[in-house]
Fold this sequence. Notes:
Belongs to the UPF0065 (bug) family. Keywords: Signal. Pfam families: TctC (PF03401). InterPro entries: BUG, Bug_dom1. The protein is an alpha/beta fold. It contains eleven helices and ten strands. The protein folds into two domains: about 45-135 and about 260-325, D-Maltodextrin-Binding Protein, domain 2 (3-Layer(aba) Sandwich), CATH 3.40.190; about 135-250, Periplasmic binding protein-like II (D-Maltodextrin-Binding Protein, domain 2, 3-Layer(aba) Sandwich). About 45% of the residues lie in helices and about 20% in strands. Helix 2 links the parallel strand 1 and strand 2. The radius of gyration is 26 Å and the shape is globular.
Amino acid sequence: MPPTAPRPCDPSCCRRRRSLCAIALCGLALCHGAQAEPYPARSVEIIVPWAVGGGSDAVARAFADAATRLTGQSFVVINRPGASGAIGHQEGAAARPDGYKLTMVTPEVSLAYLQGIGKTQWSDFQYVARINIDPIALVVKADAPWSTLEQFTDYARSHPGMASISNSGVGATYHLAAIALEKKTGLSFNNVPYIGAAPAVMGLLSGQVDAALATTGEVGVHVKGGKLRMLGVMSERRLKDFDQVPTFHERQIDVQLDTWRALAAPKATPAPVLATLRQLVDKVTQDSAYRHFFARQFLGLVNEDGVGLRARLDRESAFYTEAVNKLQLAK
């Protein structure tokens, strides 16, 4: 029996098959190219949810400067202040998960969410590393009439609602610190919100308020320069660079609060990109210029792996949930 002749191909069907094959081959080529492309291959943005000049901005710019020198690619800081960090956190979480838009996350990612200010929460990110932790301090101008924490609280007690304290924004960590201080002492302050720590400190320096709550990284230089006086720190023990300043606990005020900054990426960021970023943080942390900047600015230098950090943030979120409910801050 003669062999069966092949059926002629319908022209339109053949064109469809050729197109599908071409698309498939193109997809494979693109996939291969994406895998082969080193990261970072172009500039990287770091969103800071706070104003220029604050502690978060300083930490991000120090990291960006070191990362640029070490990788040869530009790391660019983009400030997105407002809504107690919610605007910047939301933009960062919603970014394309390719490693080219990162976020300098702060505790307000939980605080703003719990208070109904923002929709983004801490679990919407993959964490590369926590790179800074600083205790919160109460400061006044160097020529203020209060030389001690007791003198300031005595003034506030005799002038209810008149002692004004600036903070970095409604619902932010420093605002929480002020409210916690009120609850622990029975005092009432005039809490004045600014759009970030830098404007809050400038408000104090310019005489707009009586005091400010901020971190050592934001006020330390002004204290050492003789412009501000630090009355107390909300830390477990006294600080090495400010060992003459008592803790609140020493003055029978049981308040311990700090703030931190962590480099994070959108939740769906590929594991290889996260691994590369973690290696980069390790290198940056050892960079002498980076370390010198942190020491000079009185910023707390840490390098806490993002994987382990998630468990801590889960516990911290529970703590903030209790605090927000107890202080009746939820909207």
